[in-house]
Amino acid sequence: MPTPTGKRERNKAANRTAILEAARRCFLELGYEAVTIRDVIRLSGLAAGTFYNYFPDKASLFRALVEVRLSKLQDRIHAARERATDIDSFFYQSYLAALQEVRADPDFFELMFRNEPVVRSFYNDNFFGLIMASLKHDLQDAITRGLVPDLDVDALTAISFGAGYELARLIAQQPQRDIEQTARFVTRLFLEGLPALTEKPKLIRLGSRLLGGAAR
């Protein structure tokens, strides 16, 4: 968004930011159902009338909070797909971009997963629907560019989105995980299947046995 220049615009931007930051803390600590608008107003330090100049109710506030953060996530993933030069980089770079966003802002994703039923209520008619539409568009573009085979785009979109969503949950729950290895694992699984993931350990075990025999 452009930086506000006038004093009034700056005040409006500051008020909105204060409300969203207070809402983020409330939803994370209490959960969507327990939070009241009064909680958010109290934490923001603003007057009730000021709050209602920006948001009519709790649902619109939560929706705005999610959309602001997921917009950045979506932009980063889309840019990664646009830079892709082959099918491997298309999936690997997009998964890696998503996991990097989770690692950069774990509190937000903890908030999102804690309030998952509410987030999922936006699935078709709001931001998740837009994310899936963007993914489908990027897949169709990749097919046109010859990066991805001409397959069932709807099924491919659903599978790819589902994997990315659950990987984000995994990284949020297991922050010690290596995100590059995780993105590589799911990419190989997606493109090559389970046999490709089991071949390497077999070769390693065979090499260990050979080395062990040579040592003896």
Automatic annotation (TrEMBL):
Q: Mind telling me which InterPro entries this protein's record contains?
A: DNA-bd_HTH_TetR-type_CS, Homeodomain-like_sf, HTH-type_TetR-like_transc_reg, HTH_TetR, Tet_transcr_reg_TetR-rel_C_sf
Q: Which GO terms describe its molecular function?
A: DNA-binding transcription factor activity; transcription cis-regulatory region binding
One Pfam family assigned to this protein is TetR_N
- Entry superkingdom: Bacteria
UniProt keywords, alphabetically: DNA-binding, Transcription, Transcription regulation
Instruction: Point out the DNA-binding stretch(es).
Output: 36-55
> Cross-referenced SUPFAM superfamilies, in alphabetical order?
Homeodomain-like, Tetracyclin repressor-like, C-terminal domain
Residues annotated as domain HTH tetR-type: 13-73
Q: Does the keyword DNA-binding apply?
A: yes
Gene3D superfamilies membership: Tetracycline Repressor, domain 2 (1.10.357.10)
Q: What is this protein called?
A: Transcriptional regulator, TetR family
- Per the UniProt record, the source organism is Fontimonas thermophila
